[in-house]
Amino acid sequence: xxxxxxxxxxxxxxxxxxxxxxxxxxxxxxxxxxxxxxxxxxxxxxxxxxxxxxxxxxxxxxxxxxxxxxxxxxxxxxxxxxxxxxxxxxxxxxxxxxxxxxxxxxxxxxxxxxxxxxxxxxxxxxxxxxxxxxxxxxxxxxxxxxxxxxxxxxxxxxxxxxxxxxxxxxxxxxxxxxxxxxxxxxxxxxxxxxxxxxxxxxxxxxxxxxxxxxxxxxxxxxxxxxxxxxxxxxxxxxxxxxxxxxxxxxxxxxxxxxxxxxxxxxxxxxxxx
Length: 273
Fold this sequence. Notes:
The protein is mainly β. Helices cover 7% and strands 21% of the residues. The chain has helices at residues 23-26, 51-55, 199-207, and strands at residues 58-66, 75-81, 88-94, 104-107, 118-120, 129-131, 151-157, 162-166, 172-176, 180-183, 241-242, 254-255. The strands form three sheets. It has a six-stranded antiparallel β-sheet with strand order 5-10-6-7-8-9, with no helix packed on it. Strands 3-2-1-4 form a four-stranded antiparallel β-sheet, with no helix packed on it. The longest helix is centred in the C-terminal third of the chain and has 9 residues, at 199-207.
């Protein structure tokens, strides 16, 4: 009969006509590209937002400053007394520059304006340098967490309960004034000022992160392995920008780029209130 399932396969391209499954497609399911988390010390988060932090403050003590494999910034192990049960709670905070073991850190609305303390953005004056800022109140830290990074409180809007902050990228963001932040900048800054110099250091750097090094360029591949591959000279041969809805095997280069090229001229500070 004409309804045989084998007849429908005649128009389908064979494996040799199609390209290989390219690297970007293979990274999707994980497999060998999963992050290497086995030696890590745990997620770096602020305290869970509770009544004590919303209305007063709680005091903790920095017990240790530790290295977290795969993270450029050090972690501070801060111990708090549980407000409801007879026990101690250990939290992994991202260490701020100037933090030391034995230091008391205060978390909450009534916390003082000192480096290492954690307070809601609404209680901080404009111009305060902060890090590990919550994107939404209670998410325990999401913004400005990499080593040497910081955000700046730009302006407060007490009527709407919103705070404008300047992100490490330079862009501005409006967040809830109840979102908490740690005062100061993240420790471990200047990490990228020193060059890696040799392949062995790059190897060890990415070995604890994930399988993303060394990275073969697309133009150095064969046509079967990459849309930029092939040709007698290493050249792309077509525009490197692709649409957002491009099929996965073609989606390489500058994906849905709004603009390309170098940033020319002086950058005008757009501070719209």
